[in-house]
Amino acid sequence: MEFHGLLNGTGSVPGRVSGILDKRVRKRLHNPVQIVRPYIREGMVTADIGCGLGMFSFTMARMVGPEGKVYAVDIHEKLILSIWNRLQYKKHAAIRKTLIPYVSRDGALSFSHQLDFALAFWMLHETVDRNDFLGQIYRSLKDDGMFLLSEPKIHVSAREWNNSVDIALANGFTILKRPRIFFSQSVLLAKSGTKNRFIYS
Hints:
By secondary structure, this protein is of the alpha/beta class. About 30% of the residues lie in helices and about 25% in strands.
């Protein structure tokens, strides 16, 4: 996803885990199955926004099955191309039509289907206009859609995090729960005034 006018324009990803931690280490710290499994069902339309090399994307694609969709969205075309190339391997044949690599260059999140679930993991602090970004996520979701937002504790202060949550609420989101994710500040959001399909403890 290339959010012209939304990202910091440096071309860097200071808070992103991608490229910093070995993939095997990262999976131990942030197991994608454990993190997203409670919120995804077969047949869902989902998006991994700021997907990097697709650690969450490939997991989500197997969860939604052949009738579902996963948009793997990132600012860097090389990362999206890497995901596309990986999909050509025989072992990923089952998810080729499910996982959709996506680079946006027009500053807008534009999906062909509304989303049941969206994930933005450790990337919100990279946007210049959080209000615009969160508003786009809200409009991209179905009425009973969910949005898991997570930011790194080391790079995002508690004050900045609370401000981001307030911005999300101002855009119409409501808080379903605050999941515990290693070294992260996280919140599961849904559209206000709608009854979500799942109940969480």
